[in-house]
Amino acid sequence: MARARRTKQSEPDLSAAQKGTIVNEAFQPELCRVQEQPPDGDDWLHEVKWDGYRIVSTVVGGKVKLWSRNAIEWTAKVPELTKAVAALKLKSAQLDGEMIVLRKGRDDFNALQAKLSGETKEPLVYVLFDVPHLNGLSLRDVPLIERKKVLADLLQGGPHPALRYSEHQVGNGKAMFAQATQAGLEGIICKRVTSSYQGARNGDWIKVKGRPTDEFVVIGFTEPKGAR
Question: Both 120 and 140 in a single domain?
Fold first, then answer.
């Protein structure tokens, strides 16, 4: 599957960034509308739809907290991801991504559930795809394609093995969707290249399903007991 490549000429344009502070609390993530086919044109970039749990993370004064999409704190529940974000050594940040488990080279939702229930010891992976705030700068009004450059720079060189950058392809959404469907993936997420980060379901992010799925809101999990 085609992946975006960074060049020396593609430094992020942060002219729309603003100085700002954040609190160490959950923030409302961007949400997707669902449609049957991806939009056409180079106004859209396309990413794999990761099969896991949506996790947003906040950093204030170097202290990391992780949250579910509906603002339930997961910091202590997934300490390996908390430590992974801490390894970035950020002063302040808001990061958006998906918590997954990779099995045989691909994300596996059943493996993730087994990991969280204590049945397996497979490592968690935090795939990051957006950064609304970084080190005292609000990037919410910065176009998505520029925010992704910032995120790629942040993760360059692999600061922690549990952190991954969500690669994307600009344009050719139908071809990418066909590849994802053929590979048996859940689908793709299509995002408007110039979109800001509004924390809303406004049509800037679109989910195109490659196979039937159900969407669940994570409200917690049962602590492992004994062999569970």
Answer: yes
Task: Provide the residue range defining the domain that includes 87.
Answer: 51-165
Q: What is the DSSP string of the chain?
A: -------TT-----TT-EE----SS--PPP--EE-SSPPPSTTEEEEE---SEEEEEEEETTEEEEEETTS-B-TTT-HHHHHHHHTT--SEEEEEEEEEEEETTEE-HHHHHHHHTTS--PPEEEEEEEEEEETTEE-TTS-HHHHHHHHHHHHTT-SSTTEEE---EES-HHHHHHHHHHTT--EEEEEETT----SS-SSSEEEEESS----------PPP-TT-
In tens, the pLDDT along 87-113 reads 999 999 999 999 999 998 899 999 999
Domain identity same for 157 and 137: yes
Q: Examine residue 190 and state whether it is found in any structural domain, yes or no.
A: yes
- The count of structural domains within the chain is 2
pTM for this entry: 0.88
Residues with a known catalytic role: 49
